Amino acid sequence: MSERSVSRAHLLRAAGLGVAGTTISAAATGSPATAAPDRHEHPNVRLIRAYYEAYGAGDLTALRRFLAPNVRWTIPGHHPLAGVKVGVAEVLAFFAQLARAGFRADPIFLAADGDWVVDLHRGWSTQPAGLDITWALAFRIAAGRIVEAINYPGDQHAADAFFWRVYPLAPIPDRLMVK
To answer: Is the pTM here over 0.85, yes or no?
Structure first.
């Protein structure tokens, strides 16, 4: 077995343990988590790998196919983009705002267990530069679509400070005007 095709699942099975669809990180294999999937990879890991390809391309139309109509996407924190986004339109609007800051994400590690996929990824901004941290996302999958995602930043204070700099509230009285 080549070093590139070694997955954490293979290692765990060799040790008598098992976690379906787990992939060794880029640091361990020398190849990114978006490398060609192992043919034994959990289907939900393949789904999230494809989601990240569409996200990396900035293709909001392509991202739509990964989201269940009633998707719930939780963004923790105390900043203008924080909160629970419900439904495809709200989640895609959130992604559009991330794109405004040139936000990028590179998967490091993906693992599946049943309906859940957990990922670690490097997330950073380019417009303006200033945020570069590790994030974890927990995705719940049903019928081949993301029905829930919970985002966990590695440094919540850095994320809050960055998002306040990039997405300030409108000044009063504009902020309080009913439209």
So the answer is: no
